[in-house]
Amino acid sequence: MNAELGELSDNAHLTLEARYLRRDASGRIVETPRDMFERVARSVARAEQRYADSAATVDYWRGRFAEQMMRGRFLPNSPTLMNAGRRLGMLSACFVLPVPDSIEGIFESVKNAARIQQAGGGTGFSFDLLRPTGDTISTSGGRTSGPISFWRVFSEATHAIQQGAFRRGANMGMMSLNHPDVLKFITAKNAPGRFENFNISVKVTEKQWRLLQEQPDDAHVVTNPRTGRSYHLPRWLAGADYALDDLRPVADGGTECLTRREVWEMLTAAAWNTAEPGVCFIDRVNADNPTPRLGRIEATNPCGEQPLLDYEACNLASIDVAKFIRSGALDEAAFRATVRLGVRFCDDVIDVNNYITDAIAERCHGNRKIGLGVMGLADAMYEFDIRYDSDEGLAFARRVADVLTDEAFNASETLAGERGCFPNYSGSVWDERGREMRNAAVTTIAPTGTLSILAGCTGGIEPAYALAFDRHVLQGRKLREVNRPLKRYAERRGLWSESVAARLAEGAALSELPGFTADDAARFVTAHDVSPEWHVRMQATFQEYIDGAISKTINMPRDATVTDVREVYALAHHLGCKGITVYRDGCREGQPMAAGRKGRCPRCGGPIADEAACSRCPRCGGTLCP
What we know:
This protein is an alpha/beta fold.
C-alpha cells in the first residue's frame, strides 16, 4: 500500500528532524518522515508473523499501520517513533519501578530508571516504603536520611543522563498522605529549581478523604512503614526539617498537633503556589486495577494517565478525532476502524518491544496493557461549533469516549479470540466478568504534547491554549503556530490574514479583531476562557469510560485562591476522577530557567527549561512530555 503522507507543518518537520528521524554517525539525517513511518510500521508488523498464515497478511498490516500514521490519524507514543527498527528497540513510554527500603533495591531502581530514560521512557515511583527521616538503620546502628534524600538521587541520575538521551528525562514521584515525611514531600518543590524533572502527587485513600470531611479537626495520623507505629505531627513541624524523634506517638494524644484540615491546607497551598503536588485518589485507581491478585497499584507514569504495577510498562497511542469529520458529522465508522487498528498496533508493539529488564518484560507480557486514547478533541468541537465548556461539549466528549472504549474493548476481545487472552487473565477482573480480553487495560488519555505537533491538532482532551502563538525552534528560528479550524473558518468568511495571526499571537482576543464577533469568541474558547469547574467536568466525563486514567491540566485564573484549589480537588473527587492537577495562571512566573538550556513549550511556545520535561509550562500550565 503506497500511503500518502499527510500535511506536515514546518513545526512538525523541525520536531521530526530534532528528535525522531534517524541520523548517521556524523549526525546527518538519513531518513525522511515517510521513511520513519515506514520504519515503524515495518518493525511493529513483524509481530504479525507470530499469528499470520501468510507474508501477504503481514504486509497488509504494515501498509495499514503506515497509512494511518502518515495521514496523522493515529500516532504511537514517542519512544515507538524514535526506537522502532533501531538498536535500542524500547517502544514504551510509561514505566513504574519499585523503591524498596534497602540501599541495594534503591540503586537497582536508579540504574533501571537511567536505562529506561536513556531510551526515551518516563518512570514513576512510590516512596511509601522508605523509612522516615531519622529512623534506625539496623545494619549500621545509624539513622536514615529519609525519602527526600533518596528522591534526590533519582532526580540527579535523571539529570545526568539527559545529554545522551533521546528526550529529556521525566518522572512521577508519589507518597501517601500518612507517610511521616509527607510534609517534606508536599513542600519539596516550593523552592525554584528543585526536582524539576519530577511531577509529584500525594496519594489519598477513601478512608482518609472521608475522615478529612467528617473529622477535619482531629489530629492527622502518620505511620512508619517499617514498624507500623503511628504518630501525630506537632504543629511546629510545618516547614521544619524534622525527624522521626520529633513526632508524637498517637498514644500520647493529639494536643498541639497538626489536624487533618491543616495538613490538607498545606497541600492545597503548595499546589496554589507551584502547581504541585497533585492528588491521586489511589483507591479509585485500584478499583480499576484489572489484576488485583498481582498486587496494588501504587504509582503512575510521569503525566499521571497510566497507573501501573511495579515493573510494569505500557505503550500508548492516540487518534486525532478531528480528522474523522465528514460532511459536518463525526464519521464513526471510520473512527471505529482506526480504533481497531490502534488496538492491534499496540498489541503488536508488546511482542516486538525491548523492555530493558527481564522483570519488566515478564510483567508486560503477562498483562499486555496498552493505552489507546484521543487528541484533537477541541479542534473537533471548533469544527462542530460546540463550546468546550457546555453541556453540549460534555455530550460530545461522552460520545467520543464511549465509542473509543466500546470499540477498543471489542477489538481486544476479538484479538483474544485470535491470539489468546493475556497470560494473567485467570483471576483478573475480566475473568470475573466472563469477557475474554487480549489486554488487561486498553484505553488512556495522554497529553500528546509532541504528537499533537506532528498531527497538527490540539493536545489530548485539552482546549487550545492559544489560537495563535510564536514557537521558537532550533537555530533561533521563530515559527507561527495557528489553530487550523480557526484558520479554515476565517478563510471561508474572508477574514483571514497574517495580521490576524500576528494580533492573536500578541495576545489579542478574537472578538477584538475586525470581522469577528462575540459568537466567534464563544465558539473558539481557549484554556483560560474555561472555568476550573468545566475543566474538571471534562476530565470526569472521559474518566467514566477510560479504564486507565486521564492527563488533564485544570487551568485556574491568576486571582484564584487556595480555597478555590480545595474546591477543585473536592469536585474532582465527587465526580469520580482518579487524580487531579491544577495550574494557577502565573504561579511559576519568575522562576529561573536553566542557564543556556532553554527550550519551548509544545503547547504555547513559551520558554521552558530542559529539565522541566513532563512538568508544567510556566506560561500555560500545560503538561510537558515531549
